[in-house]
Amino acid sequence: METILDSIIDRKKIEVEQLKSTGTGTSFQTYKTRSLISQLKKENHVSIISEFKRASPSKGNINLKLEPHEQALLYKEAGASAVSVLTDEKGFKGSFSDLEKVRLAVDLPILCKDFIIDKIQIDMAGKSGADVILLIAAVLSQAELASFHSYASAKGLECLVEIHDETDMEKAVAINAPLIGINNRDLRTFEVSFAQTERLGPLVRESGALLISESGMKTREDVMRAAAAGANGVLIGETLMKSGDIAKSLKDFSVPLGVRVE
Fold first, then answer.
1. Is 248 an active-site residue?
2. How much is the pLDDT for 83?
């Protein structure tokens, strides 16, 4: 039976061919990249990667009224360590134009969050101003993951390698990924469980990689659970997109590194 992830990847294959046919994304703008890895290393609290996400396949429309550059400025003013931008159009109602607007608005590291299956998407991310790209281990072979990671790195982009289980973890460790994200949402069913970060987090830290816990963060207690599992940062989207007070929300999510949950 086809999963949600399968349908997304099938659609991405068509989109990639369209990009190639138009010649889009073949050159980079001259942007000075900002390092998310360096940002994470200098923080003494759990870094917040605040996400701009209008919609999702599981939640439908989240907030269609917000402008990416305005929301990014609110994130920065509230103390976010980085900004993530969904660029997938059909499932998340995002675009590379959103990414460009955020790039021009803030000087924080920017993550391009998409389902990357081809190098042309990496070119598009870099051209649009990304500092970091997302590589999802579950949708890439070991060879593809290694190739894309090397290609992006050569272009000056950092990579957040996303994992969901032990098989994905093995892929990430095999390429010595310095930055690994654990998605608490199963991309096949879109169900969320923090047990993913709690189970895999210690393994990621043992590998020497920095750790980001992704998806499902709604309360300070959620961030504390991620921190206890070894997370250097958390990625928060829906909760912040619905927040009526970004500054208060970011303050509530501020948690020291390595905090213990009793």
1. no
2. 98
